[in-house]
Amino acid sequence: MFPVFFNIFKYSQHKNEVYLDLSEDSSLVYILNRTEYTLDRIDRKILSALRGNGRLTVAQLAEEVGLSSSPCWTRLKRLETLKIIEGYTVNVNQKAIGIHEVFFIEITLERHDDEMLENFSEALADIPEVVEAHLVTGDYDYLVKVAVKDADHYERFLRKKLYSIKGIRHTRSTFALRPLKSANTADLMLIE
């Protein structure tokens, strides 16, 4: 028996599994293991199109990827439910709002126990100038991207905010001259 699909989309999550109920009579449940989900060509087209314009309507998206609206909507909801699409954002021209400088900071901590890493990560998350922060391998522990108005504001950020966090052993700052490429994800149409 093949299910008849409607615009009904219920799900619940338990551990790694997402249960999707797309059937007319709610008797058919699809179980997808999030760690094993593989994007197909259409999924990649949907993601690529939305990266270019996150405000596309379902009808516009469907036309761009070569589907009718209903299957496109179903795929879109599946990608959202599986947290492959985590949200929709706006790209802000930082210079237009007075944010002119970007710095990258390499940070080394005094200790590497769980408590120190957790406390430092939480403190960084609370600082509005911190645009990105990554726990990394190599010569330092964190790579942090900071956006500020100018060098004076950066100095104030260091003294009043960053250096007030306990546990920092060493920092090294690098000033960004200009961005060469900026994207929040890789181009999925080119990566297989």
From TrEMBL:
* InterPro entries in the cross-refs: ArsR-like_HTH, AsnC-type_HTH_dom, Dimeric_a/b-barrel, Tscrpt_reg_AsnC-like, Tscrpt_reg_AsnC/Lrp_C, WH-like_DNA-bd_sf, WH_DNA-bd_sf
What GO molecular function terms would the record report?
A: sequence-specific DNA binding
Matches recorded under Gene3D superfamilies: 3.30.70.920, Winged helix-like DNA-binding domain superfamily/Winged helix DNA-binding domain (1.10.10.10)
Q: Name one GO cellular component term.
A: cytosol
Spell out the SMART domains in the cross-references.
HTH_ASNC
Q: Name the domain of life this protein comes from.
A: Bacteria
Q: Which CDD domains match?
A: HTH_ARSR (cd00090)
The record's Gene Ontology biological-process terms are:
regulation of DNA-templated transcription; response to amino acid
Q: Provide the HTH asnC-type domain boundaries.
A: 39-100
The UniProt keyword set, sorted, is: DNA-binding, Transcription, Transcription regulation
What is the protein's given name? Leucine-responsive regulatory protein
User: Which organism's genome codes for this protein?
Assistant: Acinetobacter pittii (strain PHEA-2)
